Amino acid sequence: MFFFISAGGIIAFSIAILHLLRSCPVESCVEPEEPTNFPSHFYGAVAATFFYMGGRYDSINAEFDSDNWTFQTLMIFYFFFTVIIMLNVLIALINLAFTDGDETWYLVWLENRLRVVERVENLTFHIPGFRQHHDWFPEMIYYSATTMDIEEYQDTDDRNRAAPTSASSELDDGAADSPSGLQQDAPAMIEKPVQEELQEQIVVLHDQIQEQKVTSENQNRILQTHIQEQKASVEELGTVLQKRIQEQLQDQRASAEKQIAALQEQNTTLQEQMKELHTMLSFLTAKAMAGTS
């Protein structure tokens, strides 16, 4: 809105200066005796008027030195509008925005941090056994609020509390002039908003219970799927270990059989050697007996 107002003011002053310096009072326009340097084109006039705020007055230096009191008055209003009012309003808006950001940035940061922690904590419920083994989140969360929010909450709370009492006092004041039927319906009229509030609270609680039920069912499903996956992985590990044990037993059995066969071969060779030694001994004994005879 500020920029629209400032742009409208600059355009209006551009048209006024252009009309004052370039317009003709009669149909047959004649060039003035002292021609002005102010642009005759509309966009050039707007640009020149805008640059007056920066101190560029080369297009109207001659008019400042002249005795044209109308132009002097117009420029007084121009500088009062642009330099004094609009620039100060712009400075005030920037200061207000900076002050607001300086006062509320920490609360905004805390709120964003709270939302991030809340989302991360909700994700941990879907990981089996995570919250039993890791204590990463506090048991209490402190919620922050500005003073304006607290005052607004207190005002609404006070109004809600004062509404039933004011209604009851009005009914008591008009009880003498009201018929008996209205007097009997007064408690119902007072209790009706309370009943509506209770019904709304019951609906909200019912919705919350349904949401918690759905979330718990989803968590149970996720836990069951994780348990089944872990069970399948354990069974796979058992089968793999059983296969490895059987392979190792077969390898050990084969090596033992090989060792037994080698021992049997050694035994047969020893028996053959014993037979050869026995025959040699018998031959030697027979030869010795023949030599003695």
UniProtKB/TrEMBL annotation:
Which keywords belong to this entry? Answer: Coiled coil, Membrane, Repeat, Signal, Transmembrane, Transmembrane helix
Membrane-spanning intervals of the chain: 38-55, 76-98
Name a single GO cellular component.
Answer: plasma membrane
> What are the boundaries of the signal sequence?
1-23
What does the record give under GO molecular function? monoatomic ion channel activity
InterPro entries assigned to the protein according to its UniProt record, in alphabetical order: TRPV (IPR024862)
Q: Can the keyword Signal be found in this entry's annotation?
A: yes
Give yes or no: UniProt keyword Membrane.
yes
- Coiled-coil stretches noted in the UniProt entry, renumbered to this chain: 246-280
Q: Which GO terms describe its biological process?
A: calcium ion import across plasma membrane
> Which segments carry the region annotation Disordered?
156-183
* Database matches in PANTHER family: INACTIVE, TRANSIENT RECEPTOR POTENTIAL ION CHANNEL PROTEIN
Q: What is this protein called?
A: Ion transport domain-containing protein
What is the species listed in this Swiss-Prot or TrEMBL entry? Mortierella polycephala
